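Q: What would this complex look like in 3D?
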Amino acid sequence: MIYLDNSATTKPYNEALDAFRTASEKFFANPSSLHRKGGEAERLLRQARSSIAELLHVKINEVIFTSGGTESNNLAIKGTAFQYMNQGKHLITSCIEHASTLEAFRQLELLGFSVTYLSVDQDGKVSLDELKNALTPDTILVSIMHVNNELGSIQPIKEIGHLIKQKSRALFHIDDVQGIGKVPLDFNDVQADLVSYSAHKFHGLKGNGLLIKREKITLLPLLSGGGQEREIRSGTENGPGIVAMAKALRLYLNRAKTQKRMLETLRTHVFAELSIIEGIELNSSMSGAPHIVNFSVPGIKPEVLIHALEEKEIYVSTRSACSSKTAEISHVLAAIGLTTIRARSAIRISLSFETTKEQIDIFLNELQTEVPKLKQVMR
Amino acid sequence: MYDHIILRYGEISLKGKNRKGFITSLKKRVKQVLADYPAIEVHQSFDRMIVKLNDEDPEPILMKLKTIFGIHSLSVAIKTDHDIDLIKEKALQLVKDQMGNESMTFKVTVRRPFKQFPHRSQDMNRDIGGYVLSNTEKLTVDVHHPDMELKVEVKQDGAYLSCNNSEGAGGLPTVQDNKVMLMLSGGIDSPVAGYLTMKRGVKVEAVHFHSPPFTSERSRQKVEDLVKVLSRYGGDIRLHIVPFTNTQKAIQKEMPDNYSMTIMRRMMMRITEKLAEKNNALAIATGESLGQVASQTIQSMNTINEVTNYPVLRPLISMDKIEIMRISRAIDLYDISIRPYEDCCTVFLPEAPKTKPKREHANKFEQYLPIEELVEEAVNGVETILIKEKDDSFDELL
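A: Here is my prediction, written as structure tokens for the whole assembly.
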């Protein structure tokens, strides 16, 4: 199997699965229970939290466990909006965010907030001037993704952070779900207040995520109840999932240290090879993240190509898995100014640290064979 | 870009003959803290230590170094050869990195302990400053209150360039033989007292009074967790759990209600003194702050202190609660301290404890208490555990 859909989800590490199983068997008690078993589960949870905090270079108190990227984004955005709405009701984001961000903002618009959606250039980057003009004394939050999930474009996140803090008192939320380990992000350096992560993008399990929240910030909880996660996110903790996430994060960041350069070499190779296949147009740019390559094959329905490749055990995708069921063209590709015909025929491959050059070559070969074949049929 | 971290000693540089011992302890601790980074090298000199990163990321390492007592300030640095052009080039790179996109003021400070280097400090000041200025926008000079100070130190083995010091933990390096018993309840104050005691270069051992089933397993866990946080600052810590149920029961039964708290404290002090003696500790540390609660009035201290002639260190004595809480938060103790479990001090608290107890009354009442037996029983029943700085109990899972 050649799995090139790592931005949709990654395959869980065996070690993470083992940790999940052991934690479920041995430490199944509710961490809030007063008896010894509860105490053990609580200790394990605390240890997992401190391990994650250390890996991400943040304080233990700054780690909030959630159910995934979607919840982290929702909590960061709505939690900030509701908490600070009496200080202003203006919010800023970009027009190429993930659905969980965009839809959260749409909901807030219905509730009376005003939202500025920053446009992007043809490389998928927001403009600092536009952001500067959009910031008002009423702005309470700017939410920008670090690495775009469809294109791989990287935002000038440090400059954005500096600008926000210089010109306003707005909080800065970064959706770093796609960037982790592959494009470095130093929270202090970029002056982030909130950062979202999802475990299943780094070989952990679905149903686990993180929101990094600076200590001084308060969020209005979206889930109220027993007061877990320092009153910000109630609900019995998913202990085994969290343990698996801690394990996966450690292994993943270790892999990143040794494999990042390799990933960059692979990407350069893919770019070079794709650009010489006739009928293929590259949508991603070399300045983007090393693991996401988006290209179009105008004239061929992407579904057809995907199914043709899956016959060969090669798995690629059309666009964000979260939006692939809608018929509209990708809002991201539209935003960078692609023609409808090109946007409609986009294919995304996304690599992991496990991807090898052999796999990539097989994929490129198959693509080269399939494209002309399909073109003939479709005509 | 950064390849070194410079650590500057605080007060140790004032010490005369003990200096060498202090520096050795400090270096040992630095190596201990950085044990996870085998590539790193540590070199010491007269007034500083230099950590050679060998490609490790400086951020997490800085965070770890900031927990070490005896380090006054730290900064990330770039090392270059003895070559004025190279120095200028690196200086520019460093300033650009620190500035980002902002307007800033700066100044250059050059020190040249290595006198064989042919450029005088004053000349280099001007030279480097001029070069950086002419190659950046938005940068101006302010020699009095600069936003950024670029330090260049030309030493025998090369030139070190650094910006912006960050503060270290301060205090003195830990000397393993200077041992103090810390009375640790589980509240906000006593762990902070432990931290401040450790800061002055001593090793603490914690003493906790446990009264099952009145105090729960969770309150014991809470104390273990507090000790674990403390161990980040001075390495592994021994925790003595004292079985206190019988003593508390006897006090409840035999002593008048309004003196029960005073006498309980006297018992704790006696037991702690015995443990200090047994473990070669030279003093007792507590989290008392004058006047904070009934047991901490000057009269209470006088009456409670009567039972020991060991020095009782009270680092919080003059602090307001709010100052104590600030330290507690800053070193990550607070969230553990406020976990709502009963501890030895709260569980038997009388309705109206005496705020001005007298020595003679306490002594009179205690005639009816089998003091020595209770102390001996408690001391013999002590369970001692080692709380490790690095908890490896879940390592396989995580």
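A: To summarize the key features: The CA atoms of residues 204 and 293 of chain A lie 23 Å apart. Residues 239-275 of chain A form the longest helix (37 residues).
Q: Very helpful, thank you.
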